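Student: Hello, beginner here. Can you help me understand the protein record under this note? Any guidance would be welcome.
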Amino acid sequence: MQIAFFAPHKPIDHKNLSGDRIIGKSLHDFLCSKGHKVKIVSCMRLRHIMNSPLKWPSLYFEYRKILKRVEDFKPDLWLTYHSYYKSPDLFGPRVAAKFNIPYTIYQGAFATKHRRNYKTWLGYMANKNALIHADYIFANKEIDFHNLSRLITQEKLSRTYPGIKIEEFQFCKKDRTEIRNKLDLQGCTVVISTAMLREDVKAESMTDLIKAFALAVKKAPGARLLIAGDGKARSRLESFARKKAGNKITFLGKIPHEQLHKYFSAADLFAFPGINEALGMVYLEAQSTGLPIVAYSTRGPVEAVVHKKTGLLSPEGDIACLSNNLLELIRNKNLREKLGKAAPTHIKQFFDLQSNLLQVEAQLVNIIRRRQ
């Protein structure tokens, strides 16, 4: 296949690593690894474009450039990664129609609540236009699949799952010993968390975790919390952590993604509340390494974690319950090991990147064949 690829929300080579970027790059790289020719036809970021009228003229000039690239490349299919109201695909439907090629979306999203807000109405309508013109949509979250089912016919929609390279997130005893010695954690029960520490729901989640851990560590003084990540909220969170839990919380700074499995191996459980979390690739990566999860029962963690089988979930905002779940896994080694043992099996069954993307590839091939 020759595939015209576009990621309107965030280019897959964006400098800021995120779960969204990882999923998009994994999709692109997988298709390339299977011998398909995949051309990124635009790197223009359309995030909040509908609320930025001064940028609208640039859309026309980018559209003309895309037409030339597509004309030269002669793709069999257009594939957009992640179109939703904040970053609607404004190019794909029109270009695909002009060249009479199938238009597909991986990780389409649709929520009618955005049509009732004047600030989001334009983005909602633009995204809806992209969705209804798609020949096929892959929804990799249950809520998106449910919402899209009200707009898209069954034969044009399927529920798929994101995934990780399982072989990159395996427990390693050598790494565990190395990191625990390096951070002086011998004899401690270690909770680890990781996130971009920016001033939004990420910082809100980390604040709730610090509060919950501070309560738990009073009853389990041998516990430690490691926080990996960096951002504008870091200094404020560090001050807050010192105030709440003294030296029981360590901020590691930004850990390269390829090194993260080492720190997961050194820990005993993973915790991140996940306020407004869409999915959270870290939940998958931590479970693959054999860590049980503590989080809120919001839509992201619920998609990734099985309550009482691979982790413990609590209602959003319930700090006491979050703390009790932390304390339960800190104190109860048998339960911790039971959930940790089930976690990699769960990830392999549902979130194996290779297996999941093979299904996407097969569907894309079928779409092209039907058009021909």
